[in-house]
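Submission checklist for the structure archive. All mandatory fields must be present; incomplete records are returned to the submitter.

[x] Identifier: TetR/AcrR family transcriptional regulator
[x] Organism: Streptacidiphilus cavernicola
[x] Residue count: 194
[x] Sequence attached
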Amino acid sequence: MAESTATAAAAEIVVVQRPRRADAARNFDALLAAAREAFAEHGADASLEDIARRAGVGIGTLYRNFPTRRHLFESVYAEEVNALAKVAVDLAAEPPWPALTTWLRRFVEYTVTKKAIRDALNGESDIFLACRESLYEAGGPLLLRAQQAGEVREDMSFDDLVRMISGITSIAFPEEGQRDRVLTIALDGVRARR
């Protein structure tokens, strides 16, 4: 799978901002990782001071790299999408059904961070639209390959699949492991009947 222009656009958001000096790049990466954790735990209102503290840097370093909260949201979101695209590339040689389900389970992890960031970014932002296109270009071929192998029902589109998974991940589950059980049940409905 070659890197698409949409994936390149999403990657550019992070690459353009990422410092070249090794110590500054480490700080940048630590801030992104800390922000991803904080947004997953506390939503879009996560404290920037807490993010800096988690990254082991001062608040000034955070603001040097991400002048506004929106810059931080966009960078975390783009990095998450880039990671999902890379997972799809890495899975391209795996058998079709395991490749698709492995990618979808990683997609579920991504949606935890995505929800907080998407609400903050507004679903119509250029960044959101470029990242959405990247996701579809990364995951779509995995579904198509599984359909061509007879592993997945042919009457569904990648958009159907994403919406189903997004619906599952958008609700709270009262017990540990329930989301994974529900996802497994839903994926069973995706399998082709022989």
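[x] Structure attached
Curator remark: DSSP finds nine helices and no strands in the chain. The radius of gyration is 18 Å.
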